[in-house]
TrEMBL record:
Keywords: Aminotransferase, Transferase. Belongs to the class-IV pyridoxal-phosphate-dependent aminotransferase family. Coiled coil: none annotated. It comes from Salinimicrobium oceani. The lineage of its organism: Bacteria, Pseudomonadati, Bacteroidota, Flavobacteriia, Flavobacteriales. This is Aminotransferase IV. One of its GO terms (molecular function) is transaminase activity. InterPro entries: Aminotrans_IV, Aminotransferase-like, BCAT-like_C, BCAT-like_N, Class-IV_PLP-Dep_Aminotrnsfr. It comes from the Bacteria.
Length: 278
């Protein structure tokens, strides 16, 4: 399949990067994953705005004319114009002699491609998640391609038969290794506030708006580890995750929380989400 790299469409096998690319050497870059439902973009501008925020935060100047048009072209060229898919975008600082400080006047490396994703049937999936200490850095608001901690954590969860991790820092639950997390208690919905501890999830913000529309109270406050077992509902959100009901949470081999069926609030949000995306 084809990828767009540094201004050209190429077969993926022919798109190569310098060993001195700062993305390869330092993980010096950011990325974005933006969904298409049946070939139609969903919250594309929000994803592009987050990308601009991240570029600004890491002091990387990157301008791409007609970026939106190119994103649609990626979907077309992959033959996914009628399908559920997502577009991956990545900007690294580019090729430069190895120095810790950011080099001046370097051409960024830009990579983009579309890929098929399963966006149907999220309402019926059952999943268990694993509690893990949040060993990530302290700028989780930047969607950095340096994902060593996230991949270490999630591999451990998958090895133990879980789908995701629920991360905690200073006793407070932050998010998943690649998703946002919400809790339900006394008809209210809780989620960690925005800030450097979490990624500002596009789906997270959309779900908060849905709650407002549905007159469900949302409190942007972190849930502590002690409070976890008393929750009446837990769900994960994300671009490809959508809204997934969590059936159980494990701490090592101990089940701390169980809920076989999604409750009324989760179901209402899932239904509203489906209507907005289809
Ligand atoms: N992951 N938190 C983290 C740490 C994430 O990596 C993601 C997304 C989210 C959800 O954000 P959004 O709703 O904007 O997708 C939250 C992407 C999809 C990934 O790494 O593939």
């Amino acid at each position: 399949s084809e990828v767009y790299m540094n201004g050209k469409w190429l077969p993926a096998a022919e798109a190569t990067v310098s060993v001195f690319d700062r993305g390869f050497m330092f993980g010096d870059g950011i990325y974005e994953v933006t969904p298409f439902y049946g070939g139609k973009p969903f919250l594309l501008q929000e994803h592009l705005d987050r990308m601009s925020y991240c570029l600004k935060e890491i002091d990387l100047e990157f301008e791409k004319k007609d970026l939106k048009k190119l994103i649609f072209e990626a979907v077309d060229r992959a033959g996914l114009a009628q399908n559920d898919c997502a577009v991956y975008l990545q900007v690294t600082r580019g090729k430069a002699p190895r120095t810790h400080h950011f080099p001046q006047q370097v051409e960024p490396t830009f990579l983009m491609y579309a890929f098929a994703v399963q966006l149907e049937g999220f309402e019926d999936r059952k999943l268990t998640i694993k509690l893990s200490p949040d060993i990530r850095w302290q700028r989780c608001d930047i969607k950095s391609i340096s994902l060593m901690a996230n991949t270490m954590l999630n591999s451990e969860a998958i090895q133990k038969g879980h789908f995701e991790n629920v991360l905690f820092r200073n006793n407070r639950i932050t998010e998943g290794s690649h998703s946002s997390i919400f809790f339900i208690k006394d008809q209210k919905v809780y989620t960690h506030p925005e800030g450097p501890e979490i990624l500002s999830g596009i789906t997270r913000r959309f779900v908060i708006e849905l709650c407002t529309e549905l007159e469900i109270e949302v409190i942007e406050e972190a849930v502590s580890l002690e409070e976890l077992s008393a929750m009446e509902g837990i769900f994960l959100t994300g671009t490809t995750t959508q809204i997934l009901h969590v059936t159980s949470v494990f701490q090592n081999d101990r089940e701390l929380y169980n809920s076989s069926e999604a409750g009324a609030i989760t179901k209402k949000l899932q239904e509203a989400f489906r209507k907005k995306t289809r």
